[in-house]
From TrEMBL:
<dbReference type="InterPro" id="IPR003690">
    <property type="entry name" value="MTERF"/>
</dbReference>
<dbReference type="GO" id="GO:0003676">
    <property type="term" value="F:nucleic acid binding"/>
</dbReference>
<keyword id="KW-0809">Transit peptide</keyword>
<keyword id="KW-0804">Transcription</keyword>
<keyword id="KW-0806">Transcription termination</keyword>
<dbReference type="GO" id="GO:0006353">
    <property type="term" value="P:DNA-templated transcription termination"/>
</dbReference>
<dbReference type="InterPro" id="IPR038538">
    <property type="entry name" value="MTERF_sf"/>
</dbReference>
<dbReference type="Pfam" id="PF02536">
    <property type="entry name" value="mTERF"/>
</dbReference>
<protein>
    <submittedName>
        <fullName>Uncharacterized protein</fullName>
    </submittedName>
</protein>
<keyword id="KW-0805">Transcription regulation</keyword>
<comment type="similarity">
    <text>Belongs to the mTERF family.</text>
</comment>
Amino acid sequence: MCTSAYNELPRAQIGFLLGKAVSPKPIWRKWLKGSRGFFVPILTRPSNPKSRFCKTGFSDSDIADLISSDPWILRRSADKGLGPAILVLKNILGSNAGVLKVLKLSAWYLKYDLDKTLMPNVEVLKSLGISSSQIVKYIFLFPRFFLHKQESIKGFVKRVDEMGFDRKSKMFLYAIRIMSSMTLETWELKVKLFQSLGFSENDILVAFRRAPQMFATSEKKIEEAIETLLSSGKVDISFLVSHPELLICSVEHRLKPRLQVIENLEKRNLLGKIPNLSTICKYTEQKFAEKFVVPYANELDQ
């Protein structure tokens, strides 16, 4: 193939793919940057990208977005790869809109045999009493979690069960996902950290059942949060066990600034009732300012 024909062919193929719906030029640049040797043979096959997706009901622009987000999905067979994967997603998510939402964030899903990875894991979670709506939510938020081997998922469930987790808790699936994100060694390191800071083994398990996401935080951040809160004199270990969500807050951007504001208001006797620290830290920046900064702006400036 001569150089001029070689250079023009991808543009023509992409123009055919997109039709009149989308201007091909920006997509052409995105797809072919550094990848000309890969895309020319693919886009000239009889089974071009448009024909691979034509039965999905997706628009040309949707197809373009999916392929440009992860072009390597084009290596998969239409009949044995892309089609079955999209069908599995549609069966779980219920609509093309849901499938597109997932694939625009995680187009690499189409590189997997979802009938042997995603679907069995979804069935395992459903058998545990986890609702379809929560599973769908987690597919959007944590797509990689569902690609673990089925035996691994069952192992994570076993570890969470052994901690006394209530399967009816809305945190149950979150706990399983957190367990999947760390090794046993990492878990043990964090347990030892909590114990060194004054938490008993039971305290740790209770706190984990209430806010498993705290174990997704680094050891350094956990230690900084606990030391900041305890040194404030406003909370003790038992309070943190009851409100472990505080340990997820940013020390520099939330805990310290809000503790300082509350302390200044208390020194000036401006607060009739000392508010619950957990509630204070859950407020948005705007709501916190409206309740504890704006009404006392003059006094705090003095």
